[in-house]
Amino acid sequence: MSEAVSATKMTRAEYEQRVPALRTALLRAQDELAERDFPVVVTLDGPDLIGGDDVFEVLHEWFDARFLRSDAFGPPSDAEKRFPFLWRYWNVIPPRGTILLLRRSWTASAIVRRTFGELNDAELDLRIEHLQELERQLVAAGALLVKFWLHVDQAVLQSRIEKARKRNRYAFRDEEWAIAKCYDEGREVARRVLAATDQGWAPWHVLRGEDRRWRNLEVGTILARALQARLAQTQPTQPGFRTVSRAPSAPRLAQVDPRAPELECADYDRQRDELQERFTQLTRKAEHRGLGAVLVIEGWDAAGKGGAIRRVTHAMDAQMYKIFPIRAPDEREKSRPYMWRFWRRLPPMGRVSIFDRSWYGRVLVERVEGFAAEPEWRAAYAEIEDFERQLVEHGYAVYKAFLHVSEEEQLRRFEERRDTPYKRHKLTDEDWRNRDKRGPYEAAIDEMLARTSGAVPWHVVPADDKRTARLAVLRGVVDVLERALARQRES
Amino acid sequence: MSEAVSATKMTRAEYEQRVPALRTALLRAQDELAERDFPVVVTLDGPDLIGGDDVFEVLHEWFDARFLRSDAFGPPSDAEKRFPFLWRYWNVIPPRGTILLLRRSWTASAIVRRTFGELNDAELDLRIEHLQELERQLVAAGALLVKFWLHVDQAVLQSRIEKARKRNRYAFRDEEWAIAKCYDEGREVARRVLAATDQGWAPWHVLRGEDRRWRNLEVGTILARALQARLAQTQPTQPGFRTVSRAPSAPRLAQVDPRAPELECADYDRQRDELQERFTQLTRKAEHRGLGAVLVIEGWDAAGKGGAIRRVTHAMDAQMYKIFPIRAPDEREKSRPYMWRFWRRLPPMGRVSIFDRSWYGRVLVERVEGFAAEPEWRAAYAEIEDFERQLVEHGYAVYKAFLHVSEEEQLRRFEERRDTPYKRHKLTDEDWRNRDKRGPYEAAIDEMLARTSGAVPWHVVPADDKRTARLAVLRGVVDVLERALARQRES
C-alpha cells in the first residue's frame, strides 16, 4: 500500500480523449474473462462517499453492464444482523468468469462499526483476522481481488456534502453524516485495517478523489492493468495459509471404543423421551431468545448419522430446523471458494441447521480420495477454524460429533443394507471402496480431530450400539444449547 | 376433492408388514425421477398439527433424505413480510428431477391469516386467485403437485395438544393454540379455500389423522401412486389458462410518434437536475417509510434503455437499488416456472429493483423467435397480470415503460455502435436479425400493451431523442413514487 497518490487536475479534453481506449480495454478484458475459470471482485471503499458512488456508476457504464454483477452495502439490516457479519458478503460471491463490483465492502463495514464504537479494539482485531481469511480464501480459489480506497480530505468531503445537500442531489443517511464528522477517528481505524489487509496478492490502491476525472480514469486504468495481468497468468501465485497446530487435548479415535455397552430397550426409551422433552423446551427458549444452533454430524459410512439426526429433529417442530445432507459440490459450488455453500446454509438466529456431513469433507473424503490438492486440504484447517470461530462469536450454539463404528459392525450394517430392498440405495460401490481405505481415513480423522478442536470441541461418539449413539448425540445437543443459553444470559 | 376418508385402525403388525414394499416403491420412483425433466411438490396442510409434522418426518425416512428438499413455514418473519406473501414459497421452488416436501404451504397461510382476521373476505378472494395461479404455473411448467389435507376433529386435536404439552414433547406456538381454539372458524375458511383450489390437475387428498399408522401409510401410498402415474406420462395434461382481454384504453405503438421534438441541451440539463433532485427526496422518503419500487424498462434494441436507467440511478445512492439486466434464462432458470427468476429479484420494501428488459420477454422475443410455444406465451398475459397485481397489492410503486424508436433512428444507432470500438459489443448479429422482424415485433408489442395494462399502466415513451426519453422516464418514476407514497399515507 502506498500513501494516497495525489490527484492531478485533468482537463475535460484529456479525459474525453483517453476514455475511449480505456473502455475498449475494459470491455476486451471482460469479454476474455467470460471464458476463464476465475472471478474478479472489485471493492470501492473509503471516505470519498460521493466519489465512490460516482466510480460505481461510471464502471457500470464502461463495462458491459449486462454481464456485470454489483452490490452496495450500507449498515446491516435487521434481517442481516441475524447472521454473522460476513454472511451477506459471502452470499454475493460471484462464480468464475464474472466481475463483481462491491460498493462498501467488508472493509468499510469493519471501519465504520469500530469508529462508531460498536466494536472495541479486541473485537476489531478479531474482525480483521476474519477479513484476512476471507480475502485469502477468495484469492486461493483463483479470484482476482482489486481493492480501491478512495480518499478525500475532511474539508473537501464536508463541502461536497453541503453542496449536495443544498441541491438535494445526494441524501445522506445519518451514518454518512457521522462518517464526515468522525473523520479523524475513522482515519486512524482505517489505517489499522488497511495496513493489516494489504497483502501482496490483494494490495490496496489508495487514490485521492479531489479531481473526478483523474480519479475515474485512474481507477479504470488500474483495473484494466490488473485484469490484463491476471488474464495473462495461467498459474497465479497462491497466497500462503496459516497452519493450525495439533491440540494435545483433542480426542483420538484409538481412545474411543466404538463397542460401548449395549442399552436395554426400556432404558433407552426412557432416557430418549427425557432428553427429547428437555431439547424441545430448550429449542423453544432458543427461538424466543433468538439463539441459533449449528449441528454437525460426521461419522463413518453406515455409522447411523441419519438415525441420530432424526432423534434430534423429532423433538422440534418442522419449521424450526433444516437438515443439509452434504454431497460432492455441484458446478455452482465448485465455482466458488470451498466454504461458500456452508455460509449460505447458516440458520438465522432462532433456527437450527443440521449438517449430515459437512465442511469436514475437505479434510476427509476430499483428502483421502485426492479430490482436493494437498495445499487445499491443508489450508482447510485454518479456514474451518476461522469459520467456526465466527459461528461462536456470533452466538450460535455449535455441536459437532463424529460417530465411530468398528470395522466389524460396519460390515454387518453394509450386509444388512445389501439384503434389505428399501435400504439398498444407501449402499454404493463407493462405500465398499472407502471401507478398504480404513487406514488412510483413520489418519485423516485423527488429524482432523487434532487440528479443528480449537473453536468448537469434537465429540467422538461410540456408535456400534445405535441406541447409545443416539442418546449421546441428544445429550450433546442438549448440553450445547443449555450452555449457549446460559452464556447469552450472562452477556 | 372427496370428503375426508375415514381412518381405519391399523395394527402395528399390518403396518410393519406393508411399509417395506411402500418404501421400496417410493425410493424407486425417486430414483427414476432424478433423470426426468419435471419436479415434484408435496404439500402437507390441515388441522392435524402433530400428525403433519409426523408425516413430514416419516417421509424423510422413507425417501432418500439426501436427495429430498424440504421446507416448513410458520407465520411470516419480519424479513419475509417485506415481500409479497408468495415470495417465500417461490424462493424454494425446486428444479426438475427433485422432490420438495412442504410442511404448511401457501394454503395453510391463507387459511390461518383469514381465520385470525388479518385478511377480510375480499382479500382472501384475491389471495385464492394468486394461489390458483401459482399452482397452475407449477403444473404448466411440468411439476407434479400432490396436496394433502390432514384432518382431525377438534376434540382429538385438543386432547393431543394437551397430552403433548404435559409431556413437553411438542411446544406449541401461540398461533397453533389459536388454531385449535378457532377450529370452527378455520374449518369454514378451509372449506372455501380447498374448494377453490381443488383442480383436476392438482386435486386435494383429504385424510383423517386419528390413526397414525393408517394415515402415514395412506399418504405414502397416494404419493407412490401419483409418482408412478406421472412418471409413466410423457405428455402430461396441461392446465388451461385464463385469457386476459385487450384493454380498449391501452396505448398502441401507432399512436406514439417516436420522433418527439428535440430538446435543447440547456433545457434538458435544468429539467433533469430538477427531476433527479425530486427523485432523490422521494426515494429517501420511500426508504424511511418502507416503500419498495419496481421499475421495468422495455424497448426496441438501441432504444436507450441503459442510458435512461443511468439517469434514474444517478439520483440514488448505490445501496438503494439493483439493476437486473434480463437475458435468456440459464439452466437453473429454465428448470423452473418462467416467473421464478423475477420473483427472486423483487426488492425488499424500501429498496428499488430496476429491470433492464423483464418478464415481458415471454410475449416479445420468446414469442417472435419461437423460444416459447404458443400456449406458453398466451398463458403469460394472465401470469404477468397476476404477478403485477401482487406487486401493487403488496404496496410497491411499479413503473413500466416501453422506449419507442423509429426504424431510421435505430439504424443510425446501430451504425454508430458498429463504428465506435467501445460500443461495438452492444451490437450483435441478433440485433440485425431482430430488425428484419419489425412487423412481427410491432404486432407482439401491441398485443402486449393491450393485454397487460390491467394491473399497471404502460408508458410508451418517444425515444428518437435520447434527452426527451430520459426526462420522460425520470418524470414517470417520480410520478409513480409520489402516488405510491400518497396512497400509503391514506391507508
Order of helices and strands of chain A: HEHEHHEHHEHHHEHHEHEHHEHHEHHHEH
Envelope shape of chain A: elongated
Strand content of chain A: 5-15%
The quaternary state of the protein chains shown equals homodimer
Estimated structural class of chain A: alpha/beta
Low-confidence stretches of chain A: none
CATH topology of the largest domain in chain A: Rossmann fold
On the 0 to 100 scale, the average pLDDT of chain A is: 93
Intertermini distance of chain A: 39 Å
Q: Work out the helicity level of chain A.
A: 40-55%
Q: From the coordinates shown, what is the CATH architecture of the largest domain in chain A?
A: 3-Layer(aba) Sandwich
> What is the CATH superfamily of the largest domain in chain A?
P-loop containing nucleotide triphosphate hydrolases
Major sheet: arrangement of strands of chain A: 2-3-1-4-5
Largest sheet features of chain A: 5 strands, parallel
